[in-house]
Design brief:
The longest helix has 27 residues, at 2-28. Helix 4 (97-107) packs across helix 7 and helix 6 crosses helix 7 (214-237). The strands form five sheets. Strands 1-11-10-7-3-6 form a six-stranded mixed β-sheet. The protein has two domains: 40-237 and 321-346, Rossmann fold (3-Layer(aba) Sandwich), CATH 3.40.50; 240-314, Thrombin, subunit H (Beta Barrel). It has helices spanning 2-28, 32-35, 44-48, 97-107, 141-145, 205-211, 214-237, 341-346, and strands at 40-42, 53-54, 63-72, 78-79, 93-94, 111-113, 120-130, 133-138, 150-156, 159-169, 177-185, 240-247, 250-254, 265-269, 283-291, 294-299, 312-314, 325-326. The protein starts with a helix and ends with a helix. The model is unreliable at 1-9, 11-38 and 146-153 (pLDDT under 50). It is α+β, with helices and mostly antiparallel strands and 348 residues long. The protein is 26% helix and 30% strand.
Length: 348
């Protein structure tokens, strides 16, 4: 009997040992992509700096983006009603949140919302949405008789919002880009002067009320941060020109917007099966003559016979844009002063 108990104990110890070893190796050798997938976070003090950005810059030819409908993966549904600012602190997302994002995009001066012929596609995804005050729902039968459940505030805290912004090719090619940000926003950091609405949203009372709530300002802070990151991504990736004609050892290149510079050496990419540039360049070409948005070039380290009409040349120009300035006036006495350091970092 003693031998049986001892044997059983040894088996139990052995099983626990195996489980511990498995957990150790699972954590030690986990996919590094999972470790690197943590979202960027903006705490209250930094987030408040993004609630009003003064861009003070408009490009003659802004990059156009088609804003596709937002995806809402949070537990809070979109609602289309004219709530006061305080009502947004209890778990309401306005249906017109895309109009607010469009206003923020157009405020930048670097980006502009457009139609189906826009340069790129842009889409917002709401992943988590936690207002500072939660509701407890009273589902008593008499509440249903008077038109719905009564909701009572049961707790308070910080606003916590996680959103992601995705950028994709449309008329122009760009590598797909997506970034997520989590904002933790305290009511102490409310901005008396939040980002103004522009264009057709300037007289939108619902969005104006939303902008004066902590949830609305958390949303604006997260969106402005991601828009700065998207602009930096577009700016650092340049644009593409196409090979329009090949004559012996000379290539005629055509760019839709950007101009060429004589002497510059640019990478050339094959066209893949999706009619997009290959992932890696296959050689370089040098510009020998320019006229408007066209140029003559010759291959440097690749044969002209290996190049086909429609192949891609990546432009080297970077569009400069000034870093916007944060404008913050605290609503509450507990609000802090804010610098422009966080905004400058996001623009890089």
């Amino acid at each position: 009997m003693l031998d049986i108990v001892t044997t059983s104990s040894n088996h139990v110890i052995h099983i626990f040992s195996l489980c511990f070893i498995a957990l150790y190796f699972n954590s030690a050798f986990a996919d590094p992509k999972q470790k690197n997938s943590t979202e960027t976070q903006l705490r209250s003090n930094d987030a408040a700096s993004f609630t009003h950005l003064d861009w003070n810059h408009f490009m003659l030819q802004p990059v156009t983006v088609l804003l596709t409908p937002s995806i809402n993966r949070s537990a809070i549904p979109f609602e289309n009603k004219d709530d006061a600012a305080d009502d947004f602190e209890h778990g309401t997302i306005p249906q017109s949140v895309d109009s607010l994002l469009a206003s923020l995009i157009n405020s930048s001066g670097y980006l502009a919302t457009g139609d189906d012929s826009s340069d790129f596609l842009i889409q917002l995804e709401i992943k988590h949405y936690q207002s500072p005050h939660a509701y407890d729902v009273d589902t008593s039968w008499w509440q249903e008789l008077i038109g719905g459940a009564k909701r009572m505030v049961v707790s308070g805290g910080d606003t916590k919002i996680s959103i992601a912004l995705e950028l994709q090719s449309n008329r122009k090619y760009i590598r797909s880009w997506k970034k997520e940000i989590k904002v933790v926003f305290a009511e102490c950091e409310l901005n008396e002067n939040p980002q103004p609405l522009i264009n057709n949203t300037s007289n939108n009372k619902l969005l104006s009320n939303y902008l004066h709530s902590s949830t609305g300002q958390a949303f604006v802070a997260a969106s402005n941060y991601l828009l700065l990151q998207a602009i930096h991504f577009i700016n650092s990736n340049g644009s593409f020109a196409n090979v329009e004609k090949i004559t012996e050892n000379q290539l005629l290149l055509v760019s839709e917007n950007d101009s060429f510079s004589i002497g510059e050496k640019l990478p050339i990419y094959y066209t893949n099966t999706n009619l997009k540039p290959s992932r890696l360049p296959v050689g370089r070409v040098q510009i020998i003559k320019t006229f408007d948005n066209q140029a003559l070039a010759y291959p440097i380290n690749i044969s002209a016979k290996a190049i086909k009409i429609g192949d891609w040349v990546r432009m080297g120009q970077i569009r400069e844009y000034p870093i916007p300035q944060s404008k913050f006036i605290p609503v509450n006495n507990c609000g802090n002063n804010h610098s422009n350091i966080g905004v400058s970092d996001a623009a890089r």
